[in-house]
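Q: Entry one of two.
A:
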Amino acid sequence: MSDYLVFDDDAIDIIASVLGVPHDRADLYRRCIDKGKWDKSVREEYDEDVKKANPAKLVYIDRAMASIKRYSFCKSHSYSYAQLVYKLAYGKAHYPKEFWRSTLKHCKSSYRKWVHLYEARLCGINVIASLMREKDCSTFARDRHSSFEEQTFEDQLRNFGYWNMRSSEFPKGTYFYARDKEYFFCGLIASIRMYDDVIDTCICVGLSDGRPKYIQILTPKVYTQPNIIILKGRGTLRTGLTESYDCYTSHKFKYV
């Protein structure tokens, strides 16, 4: 039961059934339990409803809300997103060039600019040529981009958000390997998300067979400059996960 996926809708049904309250009241309780924030009057009403309920059935509320903390979403929203993801995945698998050409025209995400460009390059799209054609209409952009070829890889990445992808080979110098239960890494930052206590960083490294690998690294929250491009360090596998999750807790790291 603890591994059962409970949607917001399911939790509302369970709370309403166990406590014998209308669904709008059950939804209010669900939101308060989920966020851990209560108005005094709502908490008092909830406690009264709990006293009237069958004690043996209250466990179903606890189980439902435990699942909600793992995944909280409306069922209708989940289905609509699932349909969208399925269609996008189908297009990416069967029509990769068309998929990436369309993505490059419309993408806005938490990933850095180079990620989408590099993935498109892996499919054989000459992304730099496409970018240069787009800049033909802007004199300022052409002038700014005129020195692009003269810059180092790091300067290109910092100043433009991508590098000159003449080939699909991933940049040299990145790595990821294990030694004595520790994992050593050096990769290009693909995305950074900040939480209350940690920084969730996705880095990308090039493996020996040429395949890129995206790895999730959790580090203590520190001040970071917006133009950092590389994360280097070492860490251990996050507790409770297996290597297939690629989620590591770093205790020694450096942003470049």
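Q: Entry two of two.
A:
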Amino acid sequence: MDETCLGDTATRSLLYPLFDHLIDGSPKDRVWIDAIGQIYFQPFGLYNADNPTYFSFNVDTVSDIKHRNPALAKASFHTVRTAEPRLYLIINGTMIGPTALSPFHTEPVVNIQYTPIYVGVPHAMQVTYHAVARSAQQTLWTGGGFVEPFSYGGPASVEAPQNNLVSLPMPPPLWTLADASGISSEAFAGFAEQKHLDGLIDEIDKLVPKTGYWPVKTTGTSETTNFSFGDGGMMENYGLIPLWQRKVETIIVFVKTVSPLNTNAGPDERSKGSGIDAYLPPFIGYPVQSPGTFTGHNQVFAASDFAAVTHKLQTAKKAGQPVTTTTEHTVQRNDGWGIEGGLQVQVTWCHLDRGSAWECQLATDIRDAINRGIIIFCCMVRSAIFPTTRPCWKTVLN
């Protein structure tokens, strides 16, 4: 495959850069992020370990940032290619908890969102974290709004914001696309958190990304806490929470799963996550939790909708058709994720699975390859920029 193709990166081994970074003495919490940057971003000029680059939305947002911050006049920014309309990028991560207390008892994890314009958690949430190894605990606020990506990860302001402008000290090492993508792909962080009593997992926990975080407050000041972060899939794997927070009414969900849909599983079995992707039941009233995930607070649709959705998917698969169905729902209020109830939405569920009617039309050698397990999965999520009612501070660096 041509090296300029995005698909070429999927043919490369991630193990070699992981081992290289472990051996060369790199900070352990950077090993995964730097390996992701090297394999998936560096071939396209989007990652350079010796010369990290900021990212933003377009030339106008970069110009605005530099106007407010003359010290960044010569700084480089990656921007979205806007020659034609594109999907708005939202990268999902999970805030696990304050690093100093890790490992924790099972606490509510929090969804954090990285976008070209803003980074943060839209809804304010107070969490008390309890350390497993000792009696220490800490109650912290998370969320409340956003900051710009170039100023994320640094110390908090010592002054309250004025006219939607906050003054911050110069940030630590730049926050890059590889940082956001690395956090969003670090699935082992969930296993490390759930299996924290195992010595090997404690070593893995040292690899979990860590950075400074402070909540966005419209009054008073915030304190910076070093937080541990993990894969967005610790909470949910579809990218749906950010869409409902933004009140998106029409959504296409690609259920990217390793679990084939069992057409013989009854409603009770499906509600327990048997024979269906385990991320689906929690959204529709059944809090299934698979290893490494924290999905117990994800309900946004009535449990009475579950049987119909899953039965329609099964019917499509039995007919040999794409495992797809479109359903309408009323969003249920979810205070934990700041989702308002009452919104009427239409969701097209695309459960990635085999379709016999389509496979029969393929050449014999391709059908044989599929039967041997050589299957390619793709995914896509449509989203929208967040309404401006949520605080999103512009920044001046001192």
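A: Comment on entry two: DSSP finds twelve helices and 15 strands in the chain. The chain has two domains: 52-237+390-397, 249-371.
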